[in-house]
Amino acid sequence: MLKIAVLVSGGGTNLQALIDAQKAGKNPNGRIVLVVSSNSKAYALERARQHGIETAVLPRRKYATTEDYDQALLALMQEHEIDLIVLAGFMCILGSTFTRAYDRKIVNVHPSLIPSFCGDGFYGLHVHEAALAYGVKVTGATVHFVNEVTDGGQIIMQKAVEVLPDDTPETLQRRVMEQAEWEILPRTVAMICSGEIK
Ligand code: GAR
């Protein structure tokens, strides 16, 4: 049974998808034991509490450097004996101290088809604004391993989503979540826990 930590910063709908999958018995080889938020007001924390999952808040601004933040996060992961770390709308950049310590044990969900609309500055709604401004007709979501390059780790799963003519960033974000993120993130996590993805 792998112990999973989910790192969040906002609404936590991807966290909810992971919790729902676990409750539905779709991840028999993993258990979410900790939710860490970079933001004390994140609704994701409430979702975790409602399901009896331990929470921690680690605001990035309390740490002077990325290295300091990495060390604090590392200590928390080690204290809880975490095997797998899931970034689910986590809006802080991790340093190489952290990513190297958990090489191929950190996954992230990104709301575009990498290598489009990714890297520094592409997060949350900005990703969908950029996709609409460019005029792409298809976008989607990607789940990938996390290394020291922002959105640059090995791709594990992707799913395409159609862009509709009257989409706004908000409607597109919602459709990408519903049709792609909430499906491929729990599926990837379950497959890592079962050993199907190494
Ligand atoms: C999701 O769309 C996720 O893919 C994105 O933020 C949203 C968080 O929503 N993540 C990034 O942009 C990371 N680069 P949630 O809090 O409801 O899961």
From TrEMBL:
Q: What is its EC number?
A: 2.1.2.2
Task: Identify the pathway.
Answer: Purine metabolism; IMP biosynthesis via de novo pathway; N(2)-formyl-N(1)-(5-phospho-D-ribosyl)glycinamide from N(1)-(5-phospho-D-ribosyl)glycinamide (10-formyl THF route): step 1/1
Q: Which reaction does it catalyse?
A: N(1)-(5-phospho-beta-D-ribosyl)glycinamide + (6R)-10-formyltetrahydrofolate = N(2)-formyl-N(1)-(5-phospho-beta-D-ribosyl)glycinamide + (6S)-5,6,7,8-tetrahydrofolate + H(+)
Q: What class of enzyme is it?
A: transferase
Alphabetized, the UniProt keywords read:
Purine biosynthesis, Transferase
Q: MF terms per GO, please?
A: phosphoribosylglycinamide formyltransferase activity
Q: Does the keyword Transferase apply?
A: yes
Please state every residue range assigned to the domain named Formyl transferase N-terminal. 3-188
| Raises pKa of active site His (site feature) positions | 151
Annotated residues that bind N(1)-(5-phospho-beta-D-ribosyl)glycinamide are located at 12-14
Does the keyword field hold Transferase? yes
Report residues binding (6R)-10-formyltetrahydrofolate.
Answer: 108
Q: Where is the active site?
A: 110
Top-level taxon of origin? Bacteria
Q: Which family does the similarity line name?
A: Belongs to the GART family.
The record's listing under NCBIfam families reads: PurN (TIGR00639)
Report the protein's function.
Answer: Catalyzes the transfer of a formyl group from 10-formyltetrahydrofolate to 5-phospho-ribosyl-glycinamide (GAR), producing 5-phospho-ribosyl-N-formylglycinamide (FGAR) and tetrahydrofolate.
PANTHER family the record matches = PHOSPHORIBOSYLGLYCINAMIDE FORMYLTRANSFERASE (PTHR43369)
* Name assigned to this protein: Phosphoribosylglycinamide formyltransferase
Species name for this entry? Hydrogenoanaerobacterium saccharovorans
Read off the lineage from the record. Bacteria, Bacillati, Bacillota, Clostridia, Eubacteriales
